[in-house]
Amino acid sequence: MTVSRDVIADLAAEGAEVDHLVADLTDAEWELPTPAEGWTIAHQVAHLAATFRMAATAAGQPALFEAQLGQMGPDFNAAIQAVLMPYLASPRSGLLAKWRAERDGAERALAAVPVGQKVPWLVRAIPAPVLAAAGMMELFGHGQDIADTLGVKPERTDRLEALVEFVTRVWDFGYHARGLAVPEVQFRFEITAPSGALWAHGPADAEQRISGPAADLCLLATRRRHRDDLALSAVGREADHWLDIAQCYRGPAGPGRTPGQFSDGR
């Protein structure tokens, strides 16, 4: 990756922020419904635990990961539900402990991967820092769902740099998720960091351009906010269309969020 920060250290810090949200929840609060239809806070944390376990296996035991990947059926949603079940069957204190253990294992395994070495993942082998950035995406999206459920506004920092870079790296995922042809264009992203710094990706002379705050780009690409409720702007027909379909994860797009659902007045 081209980011200036320690991505794995940022992954650990973001994990601690989400942990802070759920550490003192009551049993009843674990069962609160989140904005993701059919998912409680417990589902969100179970998904994070399962994802971090997969990352630890991919980084530390690549042959085992590839064998497990080969056993996953073609039904993406069914596969996700299957990996959640062992975690959801735990008492909520046990779920929290398991998630903490999975996070620790993933962080250690990713940090141990030699620089430049790739690890297997869902679509293709990727460098460990990119897989850590994918973990940041998971924490951001599911953490936002938990925060929305609890009425908390997360504080965003420049730890978002790796996630912003990840979003620009996988800009075509939204097309694949909908069976759309990927346009033969290049995008220019000019994104303002929480600190005010400018993070630019893509050719400076690209005709298709996206600009706006880093947190808003991440909220859009994780499909936790509708574009109408974000301060993002587009120049060019394809760029404007991209704001409608942006997503930075593989699998079905899902319904996303509706205009005004979480509007902050913009």
Note down, in words, how this protein is organized.
With 266 residues, the chain is of the alpha+beta class. The protein folds into two domains: 7-155, dinb family like domain (Four Helix Bundle (Hemerythrin (Met), subunit A)); 161-245, Nonspecific Lipid-transfer Protein, Chain A (2-Layer Sandwich), CATH 3.30.1050. It has helices at 7-22, 27-30, 41-60, 62-71, 76-88, 92-112, 128-150, 161-169, 173-177, 214-221, 237-245; strands at residues 118-119, 126-127, 187-192, 198-201, 208-213, 233-235. Strands 4-3-5-6 form a four-stranded mixed sheet. A two-stranded antiparallel ribbon has the order 1-2. Helix 1 packs antiparallel against helix 6, helix 3 (41-60) crosses helix 5 and helix 8 crosses helix 10. It is globular and about 50 Å long. The two termini are 33 Å apart.
Notable features of this structure?
11 helices; globular; Nonspecific Lipid-transfer Protein, Chain A; 266 residues; 2 domains; alpha+beta; two-stranded antiparallel ribbon; Four Helix Bundle (Hemerythrin (Met), subunit A)
Strand order, main sheet: write it out.
Answer: 4-3-5-6
Helicity range: 40-55%
Number of β-strand runs: 6
Count up the domains. Answer: 2
CATH architecture label of the largest domain = Up-down Bundle
Per the CATH scheme, the topology name of the largest domain is Four Helix Bundle (Hemerythrin (Met), subunit A)
Q: State which percent range the strand residues make up.
A: 5-15%
CATH class of the largest domain: Mainly Alpha
The ordered string of helix (H) and strand (E) elements is HHHHHHEEHHHEEEHEH
CATH superfamily of the largest domain: dinb family like domain
Low-confidence stretches: none
Mean pLDDT: 93
The major beta sheet can be summarized as: 4 strands, mixed
**What gyration radius follows from the Cα positions, in whole Å?**
18 Å
Distance between the termini: 33 Å
Number of helices: 11
Coarse shape:
globular
Query: Structural class given helices, strands, pairing?
Result: alpha+beta
